[in-house]
Amino acid sequence: MTDLASEPGVRRTAPRRTRRPIPGLVFLLLLALAALAVWFNVLSDEERRDEERAAACSSAAAVPTEVDPATFTVNVLNASDIAGEAGKVAETLRSRGFTIGLTENDRSGNEVTGVGEVRFGPGRDGLARFVALQMPGAGERQDGRAEATVDVVIGPEFAGLATQDAVAAALVPPTTAAGACPAP
Asked: CA separation (Å) from 67 to 49, 130, 133, 161, 169?
């Protein structure tokens, strides 16, 4: 019997190695999952930015920028434990051009928490939002009053009014910024 491998001119072939496709397929699957995760994060961040931009545009559009603070009366009411706080706030608002009516303790019986609240009558929500720019973090409460007054109620966590620069910046239309609001 002759051995073919020992014959001259006959090449001995190496045993055929079979590759396992599973590790490569697992790697490709993991790579595809990582790409999907990245795209999901990118798209969700874009949606979040769009929602924030829409919220900023709607809140900016809700504050009237052409309000003359001398054309309506602001009552300053103290619902905090600090004596004289309403008088200080009233003086600051007066120096900013607001017409000040009552300056006294809050006798409404409503519990005021946080920074405070801005109270207003029906149809005066634009004025209330304009006044609320002076007191960031204040809540808004509509009541049944018929007169064109707005109440600024100082709460227990009140730390001070917004600076005039901050109020002016809040009144600047967002159309000048990058990613501006679409025209209505």
From this structure: 30, 8, 12, 18, 15
pLDDT at 156: 94
Please classify residue 126 by burial: count the beta carbons closer than 10 Å to its beta carbon, then call 0-12 exposed, 13-18 middle and 19+ buried: middle
| pLDDT tens digits along 116-170 | 999 999 988 888 999 999 999 999 999 989 888 999 999 999 999 999 888 888 8
Can you tell me the distance from the alpha carbon of 50 to that of 48, in angstroms, rounded to the nearest whole number?
Answer: 5
Closest CA to 88 of 161, 20, 166, 29: 161
- Counting beta carbons within 10 angstroms of the beta carbon of residue 74, is it exposed (0 to 12), middle (13 to 18) or buried (19 or more)? buried
Could you tell me the pTM of the whole model? 0.60
Tokens linked to 111: 């519990």
- Per DSSP, the three-state class of 78 is strand
Strands (E), the chain: 73-78, 99-105, 116-120, 139-142, 149-154
Q: Which residues pair with 75 in a beta bridge?
A: 151
The pLDDT assigned to 177 comes to: 47
Q: Which of 74, 72, 69, 89 is nearest to 154 (CA)?
A: 89
